[in-house]
Specification:
The chain is of the alpha/beta class. The protein has 2 domains: 1-38; 46-203, no CATH class. The protein is 45% helix and 25% strand. The chain is built from 7 helices and 7 strands, in the order αβαβααβαββααββ. The protein has a 7-stranded mixed sheet, sandwiched between helices. The longest helix is centred in the first third of the chain and has 35 residues, at 3-37. The chain is globular. The model is unreliable at 2-41 (pLDDT under 50).
Amino acid sequence: MDKTTKSLLDRRTFLKDASALTVSAALAASTASAASSTPAAPGPRVAAVLFDSRYSSSREFANTLAREGAAVFEVRGDIAGLWYGPLRGHLAKAAGCVAGLTAHSDLTVSRSFGRELRLALRYEGAHDSRGSRAIAHRLRGRVDLDEITSALLRANSDWGESLAQAIARTRWSQSASQWNSAVAQTFALDDHPGFLSSWVLVPSEKL
C-alpha cells in the first residue's frame, strides 16, 4: 500500500469515527432533553386501601386500587387492631396515601389513627342513596376535584371502580388552601347500604 492510499484510508477512518461520536453525542443530548421534559411525578401514590367486603362498590374500589399497586385491607372486625397491626407495618415499609370506601364510622376512626402517622384527610366523599334508587355523591377536598367529579359524571352503577381510577390519577402532592366541593349522581347497586364514605389520607407535615 503506497503512502497516498494509506493517507486516504486514515482520513476516511477518522471521519467515520468522528461522525459516530457526533451521532452518539446528539443521541445523548436528545435523551437528556427528553428526560428533563418528562412531567414530574404526581406525588405520593395510594399505598393502602381499606374496604368493606359486604358491598360491591367497595370491593370494586379496592380491586381497582390493588391493580395500581395498593395493598388491600378489610375493615370488618377490629379496625384499631388493623391500624396498630398490619396496616401500620405496611405503611412503615411503603409510605403513601391511605384510601377507603367504607362506612362513615370507619372513616372517623381511620382519620384519628392516621393522625398518629402524620396522615391528614385531603378528600372525603359522601355517597348517599337513602330514600332513592340513585346515589347523590357529595365531594369535598383540599385538592382539585375535577378528575374525581368527571369520573363520577361518566359513571353509572360501576361508580366504585371509576372513583378509584380517578383517585389513582389525582395529584395528591398539590394541596388547595381551601376545601373545594362538587356533586354528581349515579345509580345505586342493590347492595348499596344507603350511605358510604370515600376518603383519602395524605402524608402531611401540617396537621
